[in-house]
From TrEMBL:
<keyword id="KW-0433">Leucine-rich repeat</keyword>
<keyword id="KW-0418">Kinase</keyword>
<dbReference type="InterPro" id="IPR017441">
    <property type="entry name" value="Protein_kinase_ATP_BS"/>
</dbReference>
<keyword id="KW-0472">Membrane</keyword>
<keyword id="KW-0675">Receptor</keyword>
<keyword id="KW-0677">Repeat</keyword>
<dbReference type="InterPro" id="IPR011009">
    <property type="entry name" value="Kinase-like_dom_sf"/>
</dbReference>
<feature type="domain" description="Protein kinase">
    <location>
        <begin position="481"/>
        <end position="757"/>
    </location>
</feature>
<dbReference type="InterPro" id="IPR001611">
    <property type="entry name" value="Leu-rich_rpt"/>
</dbReference>
<protein>
    <recommendedName>
        <fullName>non-specific serine/threonine protein kinase</fullName>
        <ecNumber>2.7.11.1</ecNumber>
    </recommendedName>
</protein>
<keyword id="KW-0808">Transferase</keyword>
<feature type="transmembrane region" description="Helical">
    <location>
        <begin position="409"/>
        <end position="431"/>
    </location>
</feature>
<keyword id="KW-1133">Transmembrane helix</keyword>
<dbReference type="GO" id="GO:0016020">
    <property type="term" value="C:membrane"/>
</dbReference>
<keyword id="KW-0732">Signal</keyword>
<keyword id="KW-0067">ATP-binding</keyword>
<feature type="signal peptide">
    <location>
        <begin position="1"/>
        <end position="21"/>
    </location>
</feature>
Length: 808
């Protein structure tokens, strides 16, 4: 009896000690302020005591909020300065909420006890607050895949003495990393790939402490100081100039690529027949799993066909979930592959324990364990990061009759009608089979039937005539996306050459695997290109929305971009006449988009790299990732659409940039820059000089060639009569007038160029060439891949190219 009383007292004491205290008033007011500006906060966020009533994602110590973990919650809104009132906050994780946007408040620097700041894959913009550098205990900083302003590598990074992990992938960092940054005594991992970092990488002397990985892929680093001791550090400089020099074979310049069809095997059971979009787990239980991607930056193995690796990883995941007492029944890993950045990628499904879905606490806890690196994978996998999908099936938030009522009905039906149940099961199997056939047929006609509205890229695309390709088809047509068929890359992903069974060549634009970067591009290009049909616009043949892939299939345009021809990369020489015809073709394509497409389209990213040349050197306008359709009310010279400024530096309409008011005249300005590029052979901004200003400064209409002889491209054929050059210059300069109302329409530009060709005695409707072969410059040779989407002056954020532009 005495022992029972003792146990009772101990249990009561534990309950008293673990009962959260009433939330500190300042902390409550701060959370309430966030709640007021956020949409889609967890339903449990009610009442005035977040600690006592256990708001999902909020952890407290005594009465103070110490942790906010709200990964994959579908939050919408901004992060206000009220966050600074949470003075005891140690962990802030808002990852995978792509509708969280706006600038980060400098008040983050007031959170002096913050140890982990994780803002992966949101849409935060503006400058990165330098106040973060004043956080004395910050050990983990990950702000990848946001829309921050381009900035030099912040010097305050070097002041974060507690920092162990810095992840700044696709955050528009530029400049050189100071060598003293790598001397931070606790630093272990640096990932700043897909930025504009440059100069020579110097990570210091052999007194490197715990540093194990420096991943700087896809930057502009031109050199590497190979000091003694750096061989202990995994340095990755793939897709930097230092690795693009002929003959470079250093270990930091290559990473193997492959993929496997592995999937977690069933645990001695038969897969369940699941309904209502549930999935059968490895333990053969139907449920709604939490899904996402695990990406490992530097695995120590290259043979992805060895299934032993994944078994080890599965056990490690489950041990971690059990250690943290998370309600996880099993995990499923599948489809190991190397993505376009040569990371090892696996699809992850985490299944709930004891029920068919997770509650919000379970999701936020799992998301935190994965995003905060609490989970430590086996060493052979190396550093990793997790990209979680939004979870849509939270427990307790499903409409319909109560669970207890449903359970009673089910039990009664089972007890009273076993025979009938068997009969119904047979009928159900037949009906399910028929339903699957119908769904498959429907999906072939409408592959976006399951398009999720919360993918941050809008609703279901409205398509006209684009063909749906399966992943297997495109893999076959491109020879398993082989390196020999890899014909270019950009912020969106890679482009592969393919061949249809009919023999027709195609170009397959494949988004970075599993990432929602480029999702807006994907939808926009499908919707717009499926509606446009013109010989001077690249034709969309189809798309793939299968296995988590986003691919666009275009007609193959064999002679690359205008930019590459002007630079000599393709080996094709463009004389004056051919340049006139290229300008006319591109102008016709753009005029069609503005005046005849339904709906009319503003391209928003006209530049020489987005004008492709076919086998007869006819120009085709390409790349509609930034395009915007116009409604009837938005047509005309004086109307506009207020929009976030997007485009490419040098081609950007200064009026659009200053006012954020987009009209079709913004495309006209960009086309004027292309015309000047055709004249000079120079990039819009070259060695700090802007081609528009250079031409305007040198222009003298009273002199020969308008006094532009020194600026003209020598390949243009200066030894011949450049008929119509003066009129061509006049049209180009009209296009780049500062005020949009002073610029011509693209239809008017087309007529002007047609007149120039006619005055030169040429037929404006004739093809540029019988074939492009007659215009190859044999002295320069041909490019290895004549059809390339170039990696020019882009900064990348949110999946589409956006340049940091300055007033011109």
């Amino acid at each position: 009896m005495g022992s029972r009383i003792l146990v009772f007292l101990v249990v009561a004491l534990i309950q008293v000690c673990t009962t959260p205290a009433v939330t500190n008033n300042d902390d409550f007011n701060a959370l309430k302020a966030l709640k007021d500006i956020w949409e889609n906060v967890p339903p449990s966020w009610v009442g005035s005591d977040p600690c006592g009533s256990r708001w999902d994602g909020i952890l407290c110590t005594n009465s103070r909020v110490t942790s906010i973990t709200l990964a994959s919650m579908g939050l919408k809104g901004t992060l206000s300065g009220d966050i600074s009132n949470l003075s005891e906050l140690q962990i802030l994780d808002l990852s995978y909420n792509p509708e969280l946007s706006g600038p980060l408040p400098p008040a983050i620097g007031d959170l002096k006890k913050l140890t982990s700041l994780i803002l992966v894959s949101c849409r935060f913009s503006g400058p990165i607050p330098d106040t973060i550098g004043s956080l004395p205990q910050l050990t983990y900083l990950d702000m990848s895949n946001n829309s921050f302003e381009a900035t030099d590598f912040p010097p305050w990074f070097s002041t974060l003495q507690s920092l162990t992990t810095l992840v700044m992938e696709t955050t528009q960092l530029q400049g050189q990393i100071p060598s003293d940054f790598f001397s931070l005594s606790n630093l272990q991992t640096v990932d700043a790939r897909n930025n504009q970092l440059n100069g020579t990488l110097d990570i210091g002397t052999s007194t490197i402490n715990q540093l194990s990985l420096i991943d700087l892929r896809k930057n502009k680093i031109s050199g590497f100081t190979n000091r003694p001791g750096v061989e202990k550090v995994g340095v990755i400089l793939v897709d930097n100039p230092v690795c693009q020099e002929t003959g470079v074979t250093e270990r930091y310049c290559s990473v193997p690529q492959t993929e496997s069809s592995y999937s977690t095997p069933l645990n001695n059971c038969v897969a369940s027949l699941c309904f209502a979009n549930q999935i059968s787990s490895p333990n053969c239980k139907c449920a709604f799993p939490y899904t996402g991607l695990l990406k490992f930056r530097a695995p120590s193995f290259s043979n992805l066909e060895n299934n032993t690796y994944y078994t080890v990883l599965e056990k490690s995941l489950m041990n971690s979930f059990k250690l943290h007492q998370l309600p996880v029944d099993s995990v499923n890993l599948s489809h190991p592959r190397k993505d376009s950045s040569t990371y090892l990628v696996l699809n992850l499904q985490v299944f709930p324990f004891g029920q068919d879905r997770f509650n919000r606490t379970g999701i936020s806890s799992i998301g935190f364990v994965l995003s905060n690196q609490t989970f430590k994978p086996p060493s052979l996998f190396g550093p990793f990061f997790f990209i979680g999908d939004a979870y849509l099936n939270f427990a307790g938030e499903v409409t319909g009759s109560k669970k207890s009522s449903n359970t009673g009905v089910i039990i009664g039906a089972v007890a009273g009608g076993s025979v009938l149940l068997l009969l119904l099961l047979g009928a159900g199997l037949y009906a399910h089979r028929q339903k699957k056939r119908a769904e498959k047929a429907t999906e072939q006609n409408n592959p976006f039937a399951q398009w999720e509205s919360n993918m941050s890229i809008g609703g279901v695309p409205q398509l006209k005539g684009a063909r749906n390709f399966s992943f297997e088809e495109l893999r076959k047509y491109s020879n398993n996306f082989s390196e020999t068929n890899d014909i270019g890359s950009g912020g969106y992903g890679n482009v592969y050459r393919g061949v249809l069974p009919t023999g027709e060549l195609i170009a397959i634009k494949r988004a970075q695997q599993g990432s929602m970067q480029g999702g807006l591009e994907f939808k926009t290009e499908i919707e717009l290109l499926s509606r446009v049909h013109h010989k001077n616009v690249v034709s969309l043949l189809g798309f793939c929305f299968d296995r988590g892939e986003q691919m666009l299939v275009y007609e193959f345009v064999p002679n690359g971009s205008l930019m590459e021809s002007l630079s000599g990369k393709t080996g094709i020489r463009l004389d004056w006449v051919r340049r006139l015809k290229v300008a006319l073709g591109a102008a016709r394509g753009l005029a069609y988009l503005h005046e005849l497409a339904n709906p009319p389209i503003i391209h928003r990213d006209i530049k020489s790299s987005n004008i492709l040349l076919d086998e007869r050197l006819n120009a085709k306008v390409a790349d509609f990732g930034l395009s915007k359709p116009m409604g009837d009310s938005e047509k005309g010279h004086l109307t506009h659409v207020t929009t976030q400024v997007k485009g490419t530096m040098g081609y950007m309409d200064p009026e659009y940039y200053m006012t954020q008011q987009l009209t079709e005249k913004s495309d006209v300005y960009s086309f004027g820059v292309v015309m000047l590029e055709l004249l000079t052979g120079k990039r819009p901004i070259e060695k700090g000089k802007y081609v528009v200003r250079e031409v305007k400064t040198a222009l003298d209409r009273a002199k020969y060639l308008y006094n532009l002889g020194e600026l003209l491209d020598s390949s243009i054929g200066l030894d011949t009569t450049l008929k119509g050059l003066d009129k061509f210059v006049d049209v180009a300069l009209k296009c780049v007038e500062e005020n949009g109302s002073d610029r011509p329409t693209m239809g008017e530009v087309v007529k002007e160029i047609e007149n120039i060709l006619q005055l030169a005695g040429l037929n404006p409707n004739a093809d540029s060439a019988s074939t492009s072969a007659s215009y190859d410059d044999a002295s320069k040779g041909n490019a290895k891949h004549p059809y390339i989407f170039s990696k020019d002056a882009f900064d990348y954020s949110g999946g589409f190219p956006v340049a940091k532009v300055e007033p011109l």
